[in-house]
C-alpha cells in the first residue's frame, strides 16, 4: 500500500454542517406541511441540492413543477446560508486541523470531494481553503455520489492514481462512490450506516495518518 493522497468530503467530515443542512431541509418540509426524521435525512447526505429536494418531496408525497422546485431549493439554500454566515473555525470537527497539518508535513496530497455548491465559501469561513490543493465541488460535477465522478476528478486533479488515495466520508453514498472509484474509504461516524467502508472511525480525534493506514490492512 502506497497512500499518496487524501480526499475529504466536506459536510460532516471537515465541518459540522450536516446538521445545518438537516435543519434547513426540515424547516422546508414543515413549511410544506410534513416532517422528516434524522434517519430519513441519511438518504440526503452526499446528494446534490436538487436531488435532495426530490427525495424530500417524495417523502412528503408532494408533486411540484420545476419552477416551484427551483424556488424551494433556493429557499432551503437561503436558510442554510444564514447558518453558514455565522460559522467560525470553532465548527471545524475535532482533530481535523491536526490531521491536515500532519498530512502536509508528510507530503501527502490533499483534495476536497464534495457535492456542495457552497464548499469554497464554507472552507473560507473556517479558514481551511489553503490546505486543499484541488477542490472538486457541486459546481464541477455532473453526477452525484454514489457516482465516483467527484473523487475521480479529485485524484486526476492531483495526478495520483485511485489506488493510492484514501477518501474520508460520512455518507453511505459517499463511501460507495469512493469504492467505485477504486479508492480506500474511511467512514466517519456510525458503523451501521458505513459498514461498506474499509474502516470506520468516530472522528479524527486520537488518530494519526499511521493509524489510518493500519486500519486499511
Ligand atoms: C453535501 C451534503 O455535502 O452537499 C448534502 O451532504 C447537500 O446534504 C449537498 O445537499 C449539496 O449542498 P449545497 O450546499 O450545494 O446545497
Ligand atoms: Mg458529508
Question: Quick gist of this model?
Answer:
This protein has 217 residues and is of the alpha/beta class. The chain has helices at residues 18-31, 38-41, 49-59, 66-85, 96-105, 119-125, 149-158, 172-180, 191-194, 209-216; strands at residues 5-8, 109-113, 134-136, 165-169, 184-188, 199-201. It contains 10 helices and 6 strands.
Give the SSE map.
Layout: E1 5-8, H1 18-31, H2 38-41, H3 49-59, H4 66-85, H5 96-105, E2 109-113, H6 119-125, E3 134-136, H7 149-158, E4 165-169, H8 172-180, E5 184-188, H9 191-194, E6 199-201, H10 209-216
Parallel strand pairs: 1-2, 1-4, 2-3, 4-5, 5-6
Structural account:
45% of the residues lie in helices and 12% in strands. The protein has a six-stranded parallel sheet with strand order 3-2-1-4-5-6, with helices on both faces. The longest helix has 20 residues, at 66-85. Helix 3 packs across helix 4 (66-85). With 217 residues, the chain is of the alpha/beta class. The model has no long low-confidence stretch (mean pLDDT 97). It has two domains: 5-15 and 89-216, 3-Layer(aba) Sandwich (Rossmann fold), CATH 3.40.50; 18-84, DNA polymerase, domain 1. Magnesium ion binds next to loops. 6-O-phosphono-beta-D-glucopyranose is lined by residues 10-11, 21, 44-49, 52, 77, 114-118, 138, 171.
Amino acid at each position: 500500500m502506497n497512500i499518496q493522497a487524501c480526499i475529504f468530503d466536506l459536510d460532516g467530515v471537515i465541518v459540522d454542517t450536516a446538521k445545518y443542512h438537516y435543519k434547513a431541509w426540515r424547516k422546508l418540509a414543515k413549511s410544506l406541511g410534513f416532517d422528516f426524521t434524522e434517519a430519513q435525512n441519511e438518504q440526503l447526505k452526499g446528494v446534490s441540492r436538487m436531488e435532495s429536494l426530490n427525495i424530500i418531496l417524495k417523502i412528503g408525497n408532494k408533486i411540484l413543477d420545476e419552477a416551484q422546485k427551483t424556488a424551494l431549493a433556493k429557499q432551503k439554500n437561503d436558510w442554510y446560508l444564514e447558518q453558514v454566515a455565522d460559522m467560525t473555525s470553532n465548527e471545524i470537527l475535532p482533530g481535523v486541523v491536526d490531521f491536515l497539518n500532519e498530512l502536509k508535513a508528510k507530503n501527502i496530497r490533499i483534495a476536497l470531494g464534495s457535492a456542495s455548491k457552497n464548499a469554497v465559501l464554507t472552507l473560507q469561513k473556517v479558514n481551511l481553503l489553503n490546505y486543499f490543493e484541488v477542490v472538486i465541488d457541486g459546481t464541477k460535477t455532473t453526477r452525484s455520489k454514489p457516482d465516483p465522478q467527484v473523487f475521480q476528478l479529485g485524484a486526476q486533479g492531483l495526478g495520483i492514481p485511485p489506488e493510492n488515495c484514501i477518501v474520508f466520508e460520512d455518507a453511505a453514498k459517499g463511501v460507495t462512490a469512493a469504492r467505485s472509484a477504486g479508492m480506500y474509504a474511511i467512514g466517519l461516524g456510525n458503523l451501521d450506516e458505513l459498514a461498506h467502508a474499509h474502516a470506520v472511525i468516530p472522528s479524527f480525534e486520537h488518530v494519526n495518518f499511521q493509524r489510518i493506514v493500519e486500519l486499511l490492512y
